Amino acid sequence: MKKLLLLAIASLSLAACQTTPTVYGPATGPRGVGYVESAIEQGRWRVTFRGGPGADANRVGDLALLRAADLTLREGYDWFRVTERHTEVSGEDAGPRVGLGVGGASFGRGSAVGVGGGVGFNLGGGPSFVGTLEILMGKGPTPHDPDVYDARQIRSTMANRPDQGPNRVERALRTPRRVA
User: Fold this and answer.
1) Is the residue at 111 inside a domain?
2) d(Cα 113, Cα 107) in Å, to the nearest integer?
3) 61-106 pLDDT tens trace
4) Beta strand ranges found along 10-127 (DSSP E)
């Protein structure tokens, strides 16, 4: 019985530590990891990418850029300009905590004093970053401006980055791999 109880506690502890990995793909819900996009007007979109707990803010920003590039190509454009960008963080205050309490009571001829303490740990994996871009798409030669990105170049660069793994983005998108 003790072994069964220990096994159950260990299983619950491991389940509590499980976090959602940050992978490139559509979000599965309002708070799901992945991208969401919405059209503002023709050629203007808002792209949001939500990372999983513990994902680096730069990685979340890169995946938002990748989605913007894919969306630009899907819509028949060649480049996009980032007209607005911001990053939000959630779950920052979820780290370890320590508490201490003291209490006392008296009843009849007796009295009691108690001291208690506790330590809490976040098992969620850390803060989550959300990167949002507003983009304006264009056709033709890519303008020379620091806020303008060539969609094909971004797609090629991000798909072959070491932190994405070999063609990990390509597999996630289920697109055929091109052979040179």
Assistant:
1) no
2) 12
3) 999 999 999 999 999 999 999 999 999 987 655 555 666 666 777 7
4) 34-41, 44-50, 79-90, 97-107, 110-120
